[in-house]
Give the backbone structure.
Amino acid sequence: MIFSKEERTKGLEEGRRDRLLRSLLRNVFDVHQQSIYLMLRGEYVGWSSSSDDKKHQGDEHFRSEESLQSAIAFLSEGLSLVPLLQAAELAKAQPIVHWSFRH
């Protein structure tokens, strides 16, 4: 059991509660972090050429250049596009006011 008999009757100490909370968040977030990583890696890896094909061709420069381009893509989208989309989601929750003027 997570809680001892004493903890169930007397309650938790603040430090123990905080350790449980940190452990829960760390464990839950790590699972989501791994899922997000795998999804993004799949999204930004070039599907047209596998690394095995390039090893046989011996074109190390091409793979390095491809890795650089994919890194630039996910960093720029992650740092600019994602906050923009989050702002749009927040704005969507607000009532929209439409003004129309006629002369």
Observations:
- The radius of gyration is 25 Å.
